[in-house]
Automatic annotation (TrEMBL):
It holds the Pfam family DUF6232. It comes from the Bacteria. This is DUF6232 family protein. Keywords: Membrane, Transmembrane, Transmembrane helix. The chain crosses the membrane at residues 40-61, 67-87. InterPro entries: DUF6232.
Amino acid sequence: MRTYYRGPDAVITETHFVWQSPRVKIFAIEDLDDVRLERAVAGAPSGVEFALGLGLLLLAVVAGLKFGALAAAPLIVAIVGVALFALRRRSSGHAWEIRARYRAEDVTVYTSPDPRIFNQVTRALRRTIERRAVRHSYGLVAG
């Protein structure tokens, strides 16, 4: 079996695409259709992030009312730190993803924060799909 790409989070062979994201996802190359690159949209804050921010804000307001503004200063610094951390994490999200129709379901086949690795994976998948088309065209040659 020919291997087109082997990296830290993905393996592409002539028959399978294996993405080792938080959990392993395996796609049969034969069942991938309508493979395309799409720009990933940064999502809104999750419910946990929103609740954490709201809780810290309420805590700072209560501390400011009860103990004075000077006592609330460390909480305000913590809120600003958490907000900056959330924004930094959000901005470092994936810019591109490989999407496809897999067995009649629209799926994300691969994403990577590293553009160099993402482009290597994209080229390897493209070569695999082109080779699949060549294999299927042999039966159509007239003799």
